[in-house]
Amino acid sequence: MSETTTPATTTPAIPTAASTTAATTSAATAGGVELVVVDPATLIFAANVRVDARLDAGFVNSVREQGVLQPIVAHRDSEGGLVVRFGHRRTLAAIEAGRAQVPV
């Protein structure tokens, strides 16, 4: 690929606690760590998430084709929702790519 292009960037809407409820589709527990597969649109973002996620087209296409390869790190809030700690860009890319499930 010798052609140089400027990647397109997008900024999808960031989910908040008021707009989402985590829906777990499967779960496994190993060593006290729970691994679940959920709809990325149900994950909750804390208020201090950067405004511009800078999702370039290549990153979104990678997530669209291969999925999220590294699980998103989250904790459960008092209502059982999953709040993202690490993996905000992966979550937003999965939403933008139309992925139905991501590992958390």
Automatic annotation (TrEMBL):
Disordered: annotated segments: 1-20
InterPro entries attached to this UniProt entry: ParB/Sulfiredoxin_sf (IPR036086), ParB_N (IPR003115)
Name of the protein in its database record: ParB-like N-terminal domain-containing protein
Domain ParB-like N-terminal: 59-104
SUPFAM superfamilies, A to Z: ParB/Sulfiredoxin
